Structures are given as C-alpha cells and as structure tokens.
C-alpha cells in the first residue's frame, strides 16, 4: 500500500516538473523581442578587406533592412512624441543597413576613442550599429582592442588598396611637388602634405566602395577628436531612409579659395559633358550667387556626414568623381572632399534630398554646431555653449541653406549671429 502511494507521489512529481518545464519554455518565448518584419536590402557580405573582423553585436538586436511599416514603429522626433525620453536599454524596432565609418591612423587611437565614447553614450549604445575603420596601413592590436571595446555594434577593420591611396598614373608628380613647395611658401594649411591629398581623394572617391562598405546602404562619418553635445533621441539613419534623404550636414562654411582655384571650372566642364546627371530642383543657389558662373565657396563640412552609400556608388556620382580626378586638382591644387561632396550633393540631388540635422550638436576643431533655442537644448540635454554656435555667423553658409530652401530659421537666430 505504502509502495503504491509512493508510486503515485512520483507520478505527480514527474507530471509537475513536465508542466513547469512547458510553462517556462512557453513563457520565455512570450518575452522574446517582437519580430520585425524586415527582408533586408539584398546586399551580400563582402570579404573582409585587410584587418580583422569582430563578431560582437547585440544577440537580440532587431533585424536589419528597409522593408517595414514605419507606422508600426513610431519614432519620437520631438519632446511631445511618446517615447521621447525612452533612452534606456536597447531600442526595439527596425535598424537600417548602416554603419559608422572612420578613416584613421593607428596613432589616432586615443582621439577616436573619445569620439566613439561620445557617439555611443549619446546614441549608439541603444542601437548597436556597426563601425568600419579604414586605414592605409594595417591597424595594430591596440587600435583594434580599444575601439572594439567601445563600440556596441560589430567592428570591422579595412586596409585601403594602394590604388586608392597613391598618385594615379596620369598625374605629373614633378608638377605636383612644385605645387606643394609653392603652397608651403604661401603657408596654405596642409598645402605641402602628400598624405592629406591622398586622404581628400580617398574620402571623395573611394571610401564608399571599399569591400567592407559594400555591405551597407547608409554611413555616418566620424573623425577623431569630435564632440557630440546633445542626446540623439531618434535614429538618424531611419530618418534619412524614411524621408528619402541622401546627404546631410550639421556645419557649413566657406572654403579657402587657394585650395580650389580651378575646381569650379572642372565642375562646369562636368556639367556640360553630363547634363543628364544634374538634378531638376537642385541647390545651385547654395553654391553660386550668379546662377552658376562662379562658386561662392559654400560647402557642407564633411567631417560629419550621414548619407546614402548607394548614391555615392551611383553612375552619377562616379562619373562626377572620375571627371574631377582626371583634371588632377587633388594633386595640382588641394581639393578637399568637403567641397567635392557638397557640390555633388547640391547639383545632383533634389533640394529635398539634403538635410540639416539641427538636433545633432557637434564640434570639430574649431567650429561648433549648438542647436539654437534654449528649449531645444534642454530637451536634448545639451552641454554646448550656445554662444559658440557657428550656424548664423558670417563665415557659415547655413543661413544661405535656409534661404535657398525657404526654411524658417529657428527662434533666436539673430542673437547668435
Ligand atoms: N589612415 C590615415 N588616415 C588619415 C591620414 N590623414 C588623415 N587621416 C584621417 O582622415 C580624416 C581627416 O583628416 P584630418 O587630419 O582630421 O583633416 P582635417 O579634419 O581637415 O583637419 P584637422 O583640423 O587637423 O582635423 C581623419 O579621420 C583622420 O584620422 C593618413 O595619412 N592616414
Ligand atoms: Mg579632422
């Protein structure tokens, strides 16, 4: 009798554990992150170019792609929108096929570490976007270790192929050397530097087609020693995608004419040869005050950019870059990637495809973009000094950008000019 009841007790215990197990399994499924119906953008993984590749990344991160219903994942764009102050934990919802990208030397490690820390604290710790590092020399272990430890997403390290960081065969290197000597005498900033010229040419025509970058649709460029002064409450990549933006900026200014004496002639030649690439409803008025005859030196400062890689990889942009590159001004003058990108964006994109990120507060020596308006700065928990805001000063072109686009300037802009 006692043996029989012990058997029943055993059956009951086994049944209890089976039921408890089933309950646990079904319950843990219920709390898994919601599936995001995304299909990806059709890109396939490119081989790792040069350096290592880490496999870190949030294990439960939302899937990546662009096939989703934005209405199902509302993005808080203003303090009045629900979820604005939801700055803790990993954000659910879709991710764009996007990456941060940094060109750097091994010696830049501690300066880029500062930049990464700010980008992560103000934005990326909640999103886990990847970060691609590019270099003309192999990255060393310290660089990889430090940067990987700071980035919440996956990190990738690429070695730039020599043909993207050297004199093309049509360049007369003696002539280029004489130019550098002359610019040195005239004390033009970076005027005597070869590596600076390779850097500008690389950022103008090659970063977006490195093997590692072929995996992505959008990029956010980050340089060493920058500051991000305010919280970024929404996903700028998603903003770009959902609003069909192709290029964006936070600071704009006038270029040194000594570095680009014939750039506009070269651009005019391109426009004549490729009228099919010039957009109707473009922003020529941002670049020229006389209907395109001369360049007014306005450009977006390209050390910060969030943009479309597919646009940079388009025939339109590649034809433009090749035409400029053939003319030789990266070496016979000192064309910067900022005017080169800006002129392309202003001529070959529709006005509406450009965007000014007022709410991304930013510093790269020596200029600051600090959002105008005390309310905005408080809502974004900014730590920049509004007196240092460059937007409305005489050397900035942001006021012109607002005028060209018939945009209303933020309240209080006159006091900052
Ligand atoms: N790998 C590599 N990266 C470089 C080289 N020169 C510049 N860079 C990177 O290219 C970007 C632009 O260079 P910077 O020296 O910052 O140029 P800049 O912003 O015009 O000038 P600064 O006012 O000095 O910042 C930065 O991300 C640098 O780290 C180089 O020779 N090799
Ligand atoms: Mg810099």
Automatic annotation (TrEMBL):
Region (Disordered): 37-63
Protein name: Glycosyltransferase family 15 protein
InterPro entries for this protein: Glyco_trans_15 (IPR002685), Nucleotide-diphossugar_trans (IPR029044)
Organism of derivation: Trichocladium antarcticum
Keywords assigned: Glycosyltransferase, Transferase
GO CC terms: Golgi apparatus; membrane
Top-level taxon of origin: Eukaryota
Nucleotide-binding recorded as keyword: no
Presence of keyword Glycosyltransferase: yes
GO biological process terms held by the UniProt record: cell wall mannoprotein biosynthetic process; protein N-linked glycosylation; protein O-linked glycosylation
GO molecular function, one term: alpha-1,2-mannosyltransferase activity
Family according to the record: Belongs to the glycosyltransferase 15 family.
């Amino acid at each position: 009798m006692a043996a029989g009841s012990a058997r029943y007790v055993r059956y009951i215990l086994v049944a209890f554990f089976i039921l408890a197990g089933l309950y646990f399994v079904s319950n843990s499924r219920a709390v898994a992150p919601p599936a995001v119906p995304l299909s990806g953008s059709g890109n396939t993984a490119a081989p790792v170019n040069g350096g290592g590749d880490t496999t870190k990344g949030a294990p439960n991160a939302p899937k990546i792609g662009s096939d989703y219903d934005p209405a199902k994942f509302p993005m808080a764009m203003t303090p009045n929108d629900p979820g604005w102050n939801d700055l803790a934990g990993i954000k659910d919802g879709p991710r764009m096929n996007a990456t941060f990208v940094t060109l750097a030397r091994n010696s830049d490690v501690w300066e880029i570490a500062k930049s990464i820390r700010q980008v992560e604290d103000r934005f990326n710790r909640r999103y886990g976007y990847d970060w691609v590092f590019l270099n003309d020399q192999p990255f060393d272990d310290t660089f990889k270790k430090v940067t990987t430890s700071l980035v919440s997403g996956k990190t990738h390290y690429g070695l730039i192929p020599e043909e993207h960081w050297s004199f093309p065969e049509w360049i007369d290197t003696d002539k280029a050397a004489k130019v550098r000597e002359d610019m040195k005498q005239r004390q033009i900033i970076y005027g005597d530097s070869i590596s600076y010229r390779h850097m500008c040419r690389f950022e103008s025509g090659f970063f977006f087609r490195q093997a590692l970058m072929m995996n992505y649709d959008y990029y956010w460029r980050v340089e060493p020693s920058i500051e991000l002064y305010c919280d970024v409450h929404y996903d700028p990549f998603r903003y770009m995608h959902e609003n069909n933006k192709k290029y964006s900026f936070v600071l704009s200014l006038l270029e040194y004419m000594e570095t680009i004496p014939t750039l506009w002639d070269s651009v005019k030649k391109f426009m004549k040869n490729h009228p099919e690439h010039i957009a109707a409803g473009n922003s020529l008025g941002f670049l020229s005050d006389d209907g395109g005859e001369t360049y007014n030196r306005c450009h977006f400062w390209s050390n910060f950019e969030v943009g479309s890689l597919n646009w940079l990889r388009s025939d339109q942009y590649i034809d433009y870059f090749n035409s400029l590159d053939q003319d030789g001004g990266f070496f016979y003058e000192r064309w910067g990637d900022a005017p080169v990108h800006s002129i392309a964006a202003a001529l070959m994109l529709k006005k509406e495809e450009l965007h000014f990120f007022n709410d991304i507060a930013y510093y790269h020596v020596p200029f600051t973009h600090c959002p105008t308006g005390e309310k905005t700065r408080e809502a974004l928990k900014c730590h920049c000094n509004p007196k240092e805001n460059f937007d409305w000063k005489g050397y900035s072109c942001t006021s012109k950008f607002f005028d060209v686009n018939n945009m209303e300037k933020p309240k209080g802009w006159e006091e900052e000019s």
